From TrEMBL:
Upper lineage: Bacteria, Pseudomonadati, Pseudomonadota, Alphaproteobacteria, Hyphomicrobiales
Pfam family, one: NTP_transferase
Organism of this sequence: Georhizobium profundi
Keyword flag Cell inner membrane: no
Key words of the record: Nucleotidyltransferase, Transferase
Name by which UniProt lists this protein: Nucleotidyltransferase family protein
CDD domains: NTP_transferase_like_1
Top-level taxon in the UniProt lineage: Bacteria
């Protein structure tokens, strides 16, 4: 993308966080603290560092707490309200389309983030913006090797990457599996014919794979995902080690 296009991002934060119970019975998943900070604040820092112009956050579970936490960031952050009807990941993006504009948009999962290496020339988000080619891509994902990740419970990986950066689904036995880091650039043309009902972003993933338009780049740094209470301690240990070496 060029610098003249406004950068917009959406944090997918409306999930119920059932695997993080009992913590999420009283706290929305994005506000569960990791190393003393709500998870979503790590993403906010990454977006600020990249100079993103506008951020949309969808809310559903314990939405009042989410809005109160984000209120000091208004109008940089706006809310897509799903209190009445949880729309799932894909449906949530479609519902928020009027807030996202017509340029490619950065999507982030609220329950994962990454630690940037101190010697990197560009942030991972900047690398995503720079590498996205709307002529050949519908989506560009940030991916990590299993050795670069903490908290990922799925055996193997999510995708495999060809030499030209195209992604396809990982199948058992394939070499060099990659994990989706919960961060990608999506072209809004995908939203035009999408259903106005709950559905998963996997629908877009599979369509883009079939068209040869799902691509990826590799993470620089370490990726953390916090899906269970036990994963919090593992993430905090990585953050402590990372901080000690900076």
């Amino acid at each position: 993308m060029t610098d003249r296009l406004e950068k917009r991002a959406m944090i997918l934060a409306a999930g119920l966080g059932t695997r993080l119970r009992p913590l999420t019975l009283s706290t929305p998943k994005p506000l569960v603290p990791v190393a003393g900070r709500p998870m979503i604040d790590y993403l906010i820092d990454l977006l600020k560092a990249d100079g993103v112009d506008q951020v949309v956050v969808n809310v559903h579970h314990l939405a009042d707490q989410m809005e109160a936490h984000l209120a000091p960031l208004t109008p940089w952050v706006s809310i897509s309200d799903e209190r009445d009807h949880l729309m799932d990941s894909g449906g949530g993006v479609v519902k928020a389309a009027h807030l996202l504009g017509k340029a490619p948009v950065l999507l982030l999962n609220a329950d994962s983030f990454w630690l940037e290496p101190s010697d990197a020339n560009d942030t991972n988000i900047a690398r995503l913006w720079s590498a996205f080619d709307p002529d050949t891509m519908d989506m560009l994902m940030l991916t990590a090797e299993p050795s670069q990740s903490t908290g990922h419970e799925k055996a193997g990986g999510d995708f495999v990457m060809q030499a030209n950066g195209r992604l396809s689904r990982y199948r058992e036995g394939l070499a060099d599996p990659l994990i989706y880091c919960g961060a990608m650039i999506l072209h809004p043309r995908l939203l035009g014919d999408a259903p106005r009902e709950p559905f998963s972003l996997n629908r877009f993933f599979d369509a883009a794979i079939a068209a040869g338009r799902l691509h990826g780049i590799r993470l620089k740094g370490h990726w953390l995902t916090v899906g269970t209470p036990e994963a919090i301690g593992a993430a905090e240990a990585v953050i402590a080690d990372f901080s000690a070496t900076r």
